[in-house]
Amino acid sequence: MEESPRDPIEGDPDNKNFIQKSTENKSETVDAKDNFQLILSNDEIVLNVKISQHKNTILEDRESLKEDEKTTSNTASAEGLNVAQAVNDDKSKILKDNEEQEEISEKSESTDSFNEKIDQSLNSSESVSTNDTVRERRRQDLINQQNELLERQRKAAQFNIQLQTILSNHFRRKRADAGEIAHSHLDNMTSSALSIGIDHAAEYARQLKTLSQVRKQYFEQKERLDAEISSIKNLTERKVAEATEAHDELTDFILKQGSQAISSKTGRVVPVDIYKDLIDSWQKKNAAITVERLENIRLQHQVEKIKNVFKAYDLSESLHLIDFEQMKIENQTYNEKIEERNEETGKLKRKINNTVQILTHSSEKLSSCETGFSQLKKQLGELTDKLNSGRDSLAKLKQKRDALRANYTAMQKTCGLLGQTEMLRGFEESVDNVKAKKQELLNIKEQTRELREKAKHYEQQVPSMKGQKMFISN
């Protein structure tokens, strides 16, 4: 179900006050910019109080100087002329002091405008490092300007005290010498001047007393507000730290689970970039929702302020209808803006619901994939065991093969021509040829033996035949 944008305000009054304070002081509790603006706002309050008090004292001094001029213009004594001279000098000094005070007020206004520029520049989409350096530089410049202004204010206050002491001495001397210097026709004027001087001294004492009371109230209120601000800051820092820690844990859990997820279609690991993109879009939507909620709260506070302003004024009957119509138009415009914001927040909530559904669906798929993954892990363990046993048997077979190879090479070396058929055939042919040649050699030897026997026989027959021939010849 969609929540209305007024739910966080219509709840607990403590939460309402906390949200109101946090929205009013959001420039004081977010970062160093807000602390810097808090310091400037406190210093500006002090400056404004002191400036207003100083202006009041200057106006009183001017009035007293005007009255003093009236009284001194009627006296012709040398002392009266000297007092007029001193008063003129004091007037010139007071005018200079006024100019300095105007410069202080202008600088304070410039600091206000400068603070607005700082807010605009710090809210822009620049890089964090350049923002920090520019912010630190501007902060240092403003601190230097503030120190200069405080020093000038201190000098102006000292000068004002000196002028007031001069005036009090002058009035005291005037009251002491009034009976001797003033003439009979100026008795009424001198008495009125004395009464004015007494009134000024009493007014000065009363103003100092009120100033001390105001300062005391201011410092008490400042301490109380500082304590509240520090407590709110601590609370916000603690809540922000808890929120960031929870968010980081959630993102880490999502990324961890996503890194182990396997697609049911492809059977591959799902890329983590998908989950990172989902987390980035989720963070952007959360940031947009927070911005819209703050804008909605700001508009609601604006509407409440406008209502309170209109209630504070007691409008006349003639202008009541016109103001009511104008307020009606403004209320309508604000309602339209609120409706637009509500539509945008509704769209964002629908998108968030869709993303949550996607995340739940993906978590369910992830759980189912984890069960399948555990089964596959078991199968993988069995296969790895088989693979290891096969590797061991393969190593043993390789060792046997190497041993057989070594034996084979050794047997080849010892067996000679065993296994070489062509060479064996050639060797057999050569053996057969040798045998044939041996047989031929034996046959030839037999023939030679027979021939030798024949030759011997013939040699034995030769002498007998020679004897026969010789006998025959004889």
Automatic annotation (TrEMBL):
Record keywords, A-Z: Cell projection, Coiled coil
Bias (Polar residues): 120-132
InterPro entries in alphabetical order: CC_CF (IPR051885), CCDC113/CCDC96_CC (IPR025254)
Keyword Coiled coil: yes
Annotated Gene Ontology cellular component terms: axoneme; ciliary basal body
Location of the CCDC113/CCDC96 coiled-coil domain: 283-455
Swiss-Prot/TrEMBL GO biological process terms: cilium assembly
Coiled coil regions in record: 208-235, 324-351, 380-461
Residue ranges, annotated region (Disordered): 1-29, 62-137
Subcellular location(s) of the protein: Cell projection, Cilium
Pfam families: CCDC113_CCDC96_CC (PF13870)
Compositionally biased tracts (Basic and acidic residues): 1-15, 62-71, 88-119
Domain of life according to the entry: Eukaryota
Matches recorded under PANTHER family: COILED-COIL DOMAIN-CONTAINING PROTEIN 113-RELATED, COILED-COIL DOMAIN-CONTAINING PROTEIN 96
Protein name: DUF4201 domain-containing protein
Source organism of the structure: Hymenolepis diminuta (Rat tapeworm)
